[in-house]
Design brief:
Blueprint: E1 14-24, E2 27-36, E3 44-45, E4 53-56, E5 69-76, E6 81-85, E7 90-92, E8 102-110, E9 115-118, E10 123-125, E11 130-139, E12 144-153, E13 166-175, E14 178-188, H1 192-195, E15 205-211, H2 216-229, E16 234-241, E17 244-251, H3 254-273
């Protein structure tokens, strides 16, 4: 072997998951559950009275490393109601010398009169990661959606600052192929954006929550919840776009954001369905 030859660039694990939810016999069932690689759903849960289907996305490695790619697709059919979450925080580890990217792509398609909830626990982006996180939601007709994305830059509790690396994030929502929200963020480790007052002002946890709702009374209720949750460790505010309620939050860690988002989620659920929401048990274990 040539002593000057470069070692081959090895790629990480690729994993795909394809889910389909259908409404049958007064409840939502997981009608399709196909997976490749270390990403899967083991079973569906039914903690609620209206037959909503709760599923947990399991990724046994516990995080993605250099070269890994996760591809998640879910179809929610008419009348079906699916809540998709994760059992724990996701981790995006440090990349390698080749700076291979770590990618997660989520595609959610919701048929008219279907209801999809994308409520994963936070993603923790380690220092020197090279990450891409893309979420695309396609709604048809009278489809409903509630979703959130919570991202932690670095690990402050472990004294690890996000001083190098890059994460590219996008969140896109469409109804009948017309955009409701097109959001793209780029966070570069060590950049002035992370620490400046005009940027994140040293907040290391950032989050967005969206709901297909246009109701001024509910907007005022959510604003009150935001005020009640605001503290030295959390800045949170709600705004109304055409057809979409948007809540944005910044904090030093994910916990106050999660608590506030769960309070807001319960209020939105009560308004949309007329009954109390039952949170996935995995959020509290």
């Amino acid at each position: 072997m040539n002593a000057c030859a470069k070692p081959p660039v090895t790629t990480g694990w690729s994993a795909t998951l394809g889910l389909e939810f259908q409404y049958k016999q007064n409840r939502t069932v997981l009608a399709r559950n196909r997976h490749e690689g270390p990403l899967r759903v083991q079973r569906a849960f039914y903690p609620e009275t209206l037959g909503q289907c709760h599923v947990y996305l399991l990724h046994p490695p516990g995080g993605i490393v250099a070269g890994d790619s996760l591809n998640i697709q879910a179809d929610v059919m008419p009348q079906a109601h699916a809540l998709i979450t994760t059992p724990s925080a996701g981790r995006v580890y440090k990349s390698n010398q080749q700076r291979l990217t770590q990618t997660q792509q989520v595609n959610l398609r919701v048929a008219s009169k279907g209801f999809c909830e994308w409520l994963p626990q936070e993603n923790i982006v380690f220092n020197s990661a090279q990450a891409i996180n893309q979420t695309r939601v396609e709604l048809q007709g009278e489809a409903q959606f509630i979703g959130w994305e919570i991202t932690c830059l670095g690990r402050p509790a472990a004294k690890e600052v996000f001083e190098s690396g890059l994460i590219l994030q996008s969140l896109e929502l469409y109804r009948d192929q017309k955009p409701l929200l097109l959001e793209k963020n780029q966070f570069k480790g060590g950049s002035t954006l992370l620490n400046s007052r005009w940027g994140l002002n040293e907040a290391t946890a950032i989050a967005t929550m969206v709901c297909t709702l246009n109701n001024q009374n509910m907007l005022q209720n959510i604003k009150k919840l935001c005020v009640n949750n605001c503290c030295d460790q959390l800045i949170i505010e709600a705004t109304q776009l055409p057809e979409l309620l948007v809540v944005r939050a910044f904090a030093k860690q994910a916990e106050p954001i999660k608590n506030a988002f769960i309070d807001i989620w319960k209020q939105l659920r009560l308004h949309l369905l007329g009954c109390e929401a039952v949170a996935p048990r995995i959020w509290y274990t």
